[in-house]
Amino acid sequence: MARLAAGTTGGSPDIERLGEDGLLVRLGTAIDPHINARVHALARQLAASRPDWVRDIVPAYASLAVFVVPGKPPHVSDALDAAIDWIRAQPADVVADTAIPSVVEIPVRYGGEDGPDLAAVAAHAGLDPADVISRHAAVDYTVAMLGFAPGFPYLLGLDPSLAMQRLQTPRLRVPAGSVGIGGAQTGIYPRSGPGGWRILGRTQTVLFDPRHSPPSLLSPGDRVRFVPVAGA
Question: Is the pTM for the entire model greater than 0.85?
Fold first, then answer.
């Protein structure tokens, strides 16, 4: 099998085995927009060329998981070698697509029962609740990755003044569609369940439906903008 040579952030990536049929390609170690853009560029490049050994491509904040198809080539080790060779052949700052993705607008009812933590975030930031809503809805976010639950988007672009640590004791149930802040990130709960993010509001938009293809409304690399709406 090919040697998994070490790289540096901004240069050749680090590559390590991920289970029996996968590789983890590390492009950095931080939550950083530039690193995340490189991850998505590499993912798009691989998806566009789609070698027959590719089974799945899973981008994260600073890494890309690549899973291969056993038998293409005949042995898993050959497929992994082919994947390593492909990755090593890409430019350090590969840009697969310069087109700016369209913005997906997400209507949100902020505050009240839909946003039980809006006042706490406002107090923490030294702002009025209306200012928190304005700042939260003022920017286009990038879907850095999907995780935690099917279709849950981790969004980059949060105004630093709104960053706030998660709840010390998570809630047992967060309603589906809840829009929250966890540290320097914002995100949306696709379905109800436990969670510790600070909830600012809620959307009626369905983020994940297994009956649809693809099942997730958002994909890594997409852009998102929140649109405040009046309560029903």
Answer: no
